[in-house]
Amino acid sequence: MDDTDDLEWDSAKDAANRRKHGLQLKFARLILADPNRLVAPTRLAVSGELRQLAVGTAGELVLSCVFVTDGAKRRIISVRPASRKERRAYEAQADSRRTRG
Q1: Helix (H) or strand (E) holding 64
Q2: What residue numbers bound the domain in which 62 lies?
Q3: Shortest CA distance to 67 belongs to which of 85, 83, 81, 49?
Q4: pLDDT tens per residue, range 43-97
């Protein structure tokens, strides 16, 4: 298990995520640190766990991250490019915050 501060992930899951999506799970740190990030529960609970979806940026990329909160830690499940719908929602929220700010 790899971790950084309050995030953790399985190294085998990280390798699988890199093969499937071309992204390391450590990008979750950037997504979750994005002040404009969106966070919402996913539609399905898996094995009794309430998973959450975060959409945020890592550099110029808009990415999505699925994670589970376990006490003080957040366990990262996956990181992938955001879908078109997720990108639009993220950009609308970021634009809204800029016009209010």
Answers
A1: strand 61-70
A2: 2-100
A3: 49
A4: 776 777 889 999 999 999 999 999 999 888 999 999 999 999 999 999 998 888 7
End-to-end Cα separation, the chain, in angstroms: 40
State both tokens at 86: 């997720």
- pTM for the whole thing? 0.87
Which segments of 22-76 does DSSP mark as H helices, in order? 28-33
Number of domains in the chain: 1
- Looking at residue 2, its pLDDT comes to 52
Q: Is 29 left (phi over 0), alpha (psi -120 to 50) or beta?
A: alpha
**Per the structure block, which two tokens stand in for 44?**
């399905």
Question: Using CA atoms, how far apart are residues 82 and 6, in angstroms rounded to an integer?
Answer: 23
